[in-house]
Amino acid sequence: MNDHPIEQPIESITNTLDMTLQKIPADTYMMGSNVKENCPDDEETRHRVTISKAFYMQTTVVTQGQWKALMGTEPWEGESDGMEGANYPAVDLSWDDAVEFCKKLSVQEGKEYRLPTEAEWEYACRAGTETGRSFGNDEKVLVDYANDLGEQYVQQVGRKMPNAFGLYNMQGNVWQWCHDYYGEDNYKQSPEKDPTGPESGSFHVLRGGSWKLFFSRYSRSAYRGRFEPVGRYFVSVGFRLVRELE
């Protein structure tokens, strides 16, 4: 089990939408909050998780340019506070929208694209760390990796520093949809190997926090958000992709 940051990325690929995806190696890690985070939520109970297969993860969230190239629509139009352009995150998207994008890209490329599981997302976000955030516990450097309280707007992707896996904006720019249904007590019964969340539910998991209504606690690697799958939350929610290895 890793207890230190990964020193450097291993392998990346680029697909037909000009997305860069980083190979994330299989490993075991401790998912959830550690005692130093002073988190009162039982739903973040720390527990061992094994990611048994390596996977590719998009280095940024899906951009407006990538969404428009594949789907031909602009759901964020008029809702983005003027933050529009090819390199801004594709936002104002429901979980259902994100899943439809994955399905269409999978058909186009003949490869399996999907949303990350909650366990995969946190593992990729931590990149070998066990601190509150992938860059440590010092909130003074938060602005180097994520939006802070003085940056109340969505930013173009890739403008902050990446984590040790080479992933940008994992925290603090836009919330990111995960595959899993949300379960408040799910960690108490979750399997150790490749957990995929509850079998049903009313909400899906969001991770990473966002610039809107920003609080530093939302940017922790372990923080869990939720929203209904058909819901759109204006400019605060986007997603990034996972692609299965061959």
Label the overall shape: globular
Could you name the CATH class? Answer: Alpha Beta
Number of domains: 1
The radius of gyration over CA amounts to 16 Å
Largest sheet: 5 strands, antiparallel
The overall average pLDDT, rounded, is: 86
Give the N-terminus to C-terminus distance in angstroms: 25 Å
CATH superfamily: paralog of FGE (formylglycine-generating enzyme)
Looking at the structure, the CATH topology is: paralog of FGE (formylglycine-generating enzyme)
Low-confidence stretches: none
How many beta strands in the DSSP annotation?
Answer: 11
Q: How is the largest sheet built, in terms of strand order?
A: 1-2-5-11-6
The share of residues in extended strands comes to 15-25%
- What is the architecture at the second tier of CATH? Alpha-Beta Complex
Query: What structural class do the secondary elements suggest?
Result: alpha+beta
List the total number of helices.
Answer: 4
